[in-house]
């Protein structure tokens, strides 16, 4: 589809420090991303600016420095640790005479390499197509090229219009297939709800040790490596918790600062496991000096996917890399476990994690006695039956339904938000 330079494995990296807080990125993390993509870094060019330049993102002098570095190192590609506009990418490519990609393009490339399942491949392709659709214009230096020849003359479509139409058609086809995947996942979640099986979802910054912890807890064999975005495809396994019974543990994709919106949208079906979880296990690399910033980045993404209200248990991982840190449970003022310090690699503190999960799941249950008038009985009773949470029910002489239900707090909150009637008005003591 594109008339463009061939991409390569030898890169010049560009990292600019901005005084604006929102533009800030981390150089060491950028180098890890490049390494995870399998690209060789030939030179890192850094600089400082107040704000991005509209033409080259960097100033004219820095742009010339980048072009000279490409020539001197015989680089195949220039990678920016920032989001570039299509015009900036096009201008830099013309100057450097090689391909230029930004942070979003780099992350998309890593995701494309890591996806293993059919669903994962569809999600990555969707994100890539959405990203490419804004950059189609740079793929052609002859934007008015039209089909010609006998029987094909006339206004027709320009090549650019054809490409845009093909992209739109492909995006629609992928969305239809992902909708089927989403319905299949929804059926699985409904089945677990009917059986009252709680779901726990691992979330956290990329490379925090989620998959290693997942393998330790479930004795599974999920791919785990010391690299960014080692896990893309969600994996679900059953675990047994004392006094609770069976629970489902889900391992999900790692988050990162300024995670591209196209990726968040594309991975909606996968991230729904996080939205619908009873408890989030927020895994944190305690050995990372900037773990607090990583926590904020994860919380930002959770807010973006409407999962910020799901109860969360912090798991401080990799204590084997720290001195004077021992496995322990930290509790809040009410005695509820909030943080567990563990080492997924050595297994230290895993028993405490199970203990904390058992306590949290037990404390997250609510029981309500409701008196429901006849006009609301059909729908509300049907919902309770779908959730398999009815303990007892009977009718009073006035025809009101007297029903006792027991469910997770988060499920009750979701019902209250979803129903037009105020369920709290039906609660009787």
Automatic annotation (TrEMBL):
Superkingdom of this protein's organism: Bacteria
Matching InterPro entries: EFG_III/V, G_HFLX_dom, GTP-bd, GTP-bd_M, GTPase_HflX, GTPase_HflX_N, GTPase_HflX_N_sf, HflX_C
PROSITE patterns per record: G_HFLX (PS51705)
Residues binding Mg(2+): 211, 231
GO molecular function, one term: guanosine tetraphosphate binding
Keywords, alphabetical: Cytoplasm, GTP-binding, Magnesium, Metal-binding, Nucleotide-binding
Domain named Hflx-type G: residues: 198-365
Cofactor dependency: Mg(2+)
Gene Ontology annotations for the cellular component aspect, listed alphabetically: cytoplasm
Record localization: Cytoplasm
Record-listed GTP binding positions: 204-211, 229-233, 251-254, 317-320
Signal sequence coordinates: none
Family, as annotated: Belongs to the TRAFAC class OBG-HflX-like GTPase superfamily. HflX GTPase family.
PANTHER family the record matches: GTP-BINDING PROTEIN 6-RELATED (PTHR10229:SF0), GTP-BINDING PROTEIN HFLX (PTHR10229)
Reported function: GTPase that associates with the 50S ribosomal subunit and may have a role during protein synthesis or ribosome biogenesis.
Oligomer status and interactors: Monomer. Associates with the 50S ribosomal subunit.
Protein name: GTPase HflX
The organism of origin for this protein: Vibrio palustris
Gene: hflX
